[in-house]
Write a structure and sequence with these properties.
By secondary structure, this protein is α/β, with parallel strands linked by helices. It has helices at 9-35, 40-49, 52-59, 63-67, 79-117, 159-162, 207-220, 240-254, 303-320, 355-372; strands at 129-131, 142-144, 147-151, 172-176, 225-227, 258-265, 277-280, 283-286, 288-293, 328-331, 342-348. The strands form two sheets. It has an eight-stranded mixed β-sheet, with helices on both faces. Strands 1-7-8 form a three-stranded antiparallel β-sheet. α7 (207-220) links the parallel β4 and β5 (225-227). α1 (9-35) runs antiparallel to α5, α7 (207-220) runs parallel beside α10 and α9 (303-320) crosses α10. The longest helix has 39 residues, at 79-117.
Length: 374
């Protein structure tokens, strides 16, 4: 391995502030001694008469406010001292933020360790399923052998286009998240602090956690999985797909035998209570939904293969766990699906679902994939 020195932006800012303090201090002293007309003896006498508490007030920011009710401040803080206090405060703030970030990373690593130690629950077959009612009606425009499709493009979906005669390589499966911070309705087990509407930067409670479960389940069936937990919608939501495109293309260069690329999301509509759910056996699982991009303005060569793969998976899911999937949505935008032969978006539940339900869905999804991709 090659050792490389990595400069942290916070450290650079901290060093620049320190250098600035030194420069300002030197300039201030020079100016002071060259222009000061104050009698030194009087200054010494004034300091001599000042109380120890007053000296502390000058030296340590914040002490003066504490002692204000007890004594009257006798010595004024110079502009140079104020500048130094502000600069030191910025340094302390950076240090505190760095400590907080480190604590968050340590917590996430600890949670990852706990997740890895949790026993893997395998999906059973032959279970009864029942789709739970919601206040959002199911919409679709066409159907192919039980697979429903909501076509939002001007493409005419012929039988030839929908026939799932597509084969894919199983050497590697890539999972990533364009909207990394998407989260769910907090449950008793999974409470978290939101940093937006059903969003959080804590990946232990977002679609990243769902991706980890899918990763574990797929590995149980013998697949090699690459799971990227990179933020693409933080600190800015704008440009998420441009950011994730860079991640995907870089990973595909390292894993050239990858056909299956899953961008795992959480659905979002204006009704935050919307929780598409299917009961499988005694469990309640978040419903899944494929979103396939056709991109009519700049047609990418893979869109029909992407659609065929989605139809193939959903056909098997309808056979094994009816209701696990909602209708496939076909839209114009490419969603970076031009990158692979079986690239897709899978929406796992919506804002009204819990993380518990989303995690349960992954064991059934992995089981379906294992029956299709052999």
């Amino acid at each position: 391995m090659i050792n490389m020195a990595v400069l942290n932006l916070k450290d650079i800012i901290k060093y620049l502030i320190k250098i600035t303090i030194v420069i300002v201090f030197v300039i201030g002293l020079t100016k002071y001694f060259s222009t000061a007309k104050v009698d030194v003896a009087k200054q010494v006498e004034g300091l001599g008469n000042a109380s120890f508490t007053s000296c502390l007030d000058i030296t340590i920011p914040g002490i003066a406010n504490t002692n204000k009710k007890e004594i009257e401040e006798k010595v004024r803080i110079s502009p140079l001292e104020k500048m130094m206090y502000l600069s030191l405060g910025m340094i302390n703030s950076l240090e505190n933020k760095k400590t907080t970030t480190q604590e968050g990373e340590n917590k996430e690593r600890e949670n990852n360790k706990q997740e890895a130690e949790e026993p893997l629950q395998k999906a059973e077959t032959g279970l009864e399923t029942e789709v739970q009612k919601t206040n959002v009606p199911e919409k679709y425009t066409s159907e192919y052998k039980g697979v429903k499709i909501r076509n939002e493009t001007k493409y005419k979906l012929t039988e030839e286009i929908l026939t799932p005669n597509v084969t894919v390589k199983k050497e590697n499966i890539l999972i990533f998240h364009t909207h990394t911070c998407e989260s769910y309705t907090p449950s008793e087990k999974y409470q978290y602090k939101q940093t937006g509407n059903y969003r959080t930067t804590d990946r232990n409670y977002t679609v990243v956690r769902v991706g980890r479960e899918l990763d574990r389940q797929l590995q149980n069936y013998g697949y090699k999985v690459t799971h990227s937990e990179t933020y693409h919608d933080y600190p800015s939501y704008t440009g998420s797909y441009e950011n994730s495109y860079k991640t995907v293309t870089n990973l595909l260069q390292k894993n050239k035998n990858t056909d299956i690329v899953i961008d795992l999301h959480r659905d979002a509509i204006s009704d935050y209570s919307y929780a598409p759910t299917v009961k499988i056996g005694d469990e309640y699982a978040a419903q899944l939904m494929f979103v396939i991009g056709g991109n009519i303005s700049k047609e990418h060569p893979n869109w029909q293969q992407n659609l065929k793969f989605a139809v193939k998976i959903q056909q098997k899911a309808n056979e094994m766990y009816p209701g696990l999937f909602k209708p496939i949505i076909l839209r114009y935008a490419s969603y970076n699906q031009q990158t692979a032969k079986a690239a897709n978006i899978i929406e796992v539940g919506s804002t009204g679902n819990t993380l518990d339900q989303a995690l349960i869905s992954m064991k059934y999804l992995a089981k379906v994939i294992s029956e299709v991709v052999k």
